[in-house]
Amino acid sequence: MEIEEVERIEEILSNADMSDEMKAACIYGISFTNTVTSLEAKLRGGHDFDLISNDALQTTLEFYDADNVIMTDTDVGLQVAGNYMHEITRAGVSPVCGSDPIYLEKYPMFLQTIEQDQAIVIPDIGQLFPEDSIEYKRLEQGGIHSFIAVPYHKIHSGLVAVVNPRRYTDKIGLLQVLSYVSVAEINEKFLTQLLKENRIAEPLPESADVYVKFFDGLEIHSHNGVLTEHNIKSSRNVALLAFTLLNGKTGVSGYTMEAGLWLNATKPVNARKTELNISSYLRDVMSSFFPDEPLIRCENFRFSVSPTYHVRTDLQEVDALCIEVLRETDVSKKIDLYKKIIQDYSGCVLPYQQDFPCIRDVATEYDHKRLRSLRECLKLLVEERRYDEAVDLATPEGLRYCTDSYLFYWLVRAYIGCGELLHAKDVFEGHKSYLLPEQIVELNSLLN
Q1: pLDDT digits over 374-412, tens only?
Q2: Which secondary-structure segment (H or E) carries 226?
Q3: Is the dihedral of CA 55, 62, 71, 245 positive or negative?
Q4: What is the mean pLDDT of residues 407-419?
Q5: Cα–Cα distance between 41 and 60 in angstroms, integer?
Q6: What is the mean pLDDT of residues 40-64?
Q7: What is the DSSP letter of 349?
Q8: Residue 404 pLDDT
Q9: Are 82 and 368 contacting, i.e. CB atoms less than 8 angstroms apart?
Q10: Nearest alpha carbon to residue 285 among 270, 295, 271, 276
Q11: Distant-in-sequence, close-in-space partners of 327: CB < 8 Å, separation ≥ 6
């Protein structure tokens, strides 16, 4: 149904002899049906997962006439959002989400939405929180006056939120449909990549082995030497290379690459040509390291790793350790694995490329994994009464995770276990503002 036809029907309904509630219900029903039908026709047969997800969120923004639409994965155990985050905004509206992870302990209603699998509809934050409350100030500072949020659970958990909707402010139906579309596409992307990376193939020669290091800066170890990001003349060139390597043989479309490289910056007049020029430049720079076959290929405006090579990364090593520690049942071995994750990966993923969203999202994801390992390790050390080890482990991490409530909670517990009450009280008083209410009550009791 064309938009003009929808508007004509809405005009007829507005003049019809029926209650305002009935008119609103009819108009919503027509708009809902038309939007879903149009979206299905638009996405049918599409194969670019990122574009499909992007179109679904854009449709959500337009349907609700909202300021922002946000979709974010959530680590429920760690209570942190932002492993994967995608936000679309109305023209002229600033993004709500920045580059930092969102600690959901500060927003318990969002965490509750995910944990209890219930949607929330807040027409006015002033009705939910007193104006002098911390929650009200946090939301108001972010430009959030009203919102609708629905959770999702399909391999990953998270939520999709509409910020400051101007119509259908209490209707969650379309948001549920479109969040499912977006999440389904993201999961299919991850699954497709996993299948391609793990498919059975002929053994490759040893010279085809490539090791890529992302922590503390990009390094590509090949049979012919080591290429570092210092060999490449621009951060954007490094980001394109790194983003391609992160997506492996599955690859990433040039349009998704464009959003990752210029989301918050002025795009060149011809972004496609610029990406292809960067790709050509990278092939030249890397030719001495990969003389027989380029490591990176670009076909049909899709960047990917050549199937000629077997690429292994330090990020895969972290993932393997995280799986191993979950399977381990011996507490001492579990602690050793956690310590290895914490000590071996103390740096940041591509620290000099954090201006690019495609890189920043990955860095955030692995920082979350490390923080989760740190929390779990401290918990086990305190439970095993290995207090000195807990203090030695937690103390230097306070600079990196200076607002994490669980880090300082376990550090105070460890100092108490060591009998160092003065140090315990100093840490407690110095970081009380970051602790959760129940942690404050418990530590107060222990200290007194």
Answers
A1: 999 999 999 999 999 999 999 999 999 999 999 999 999
A2: strand 225-228
A3: positive
A4: 95
A5: 16
A6: 69
A7: B
A8: 92
A9: yes
A10: 295
A11: none
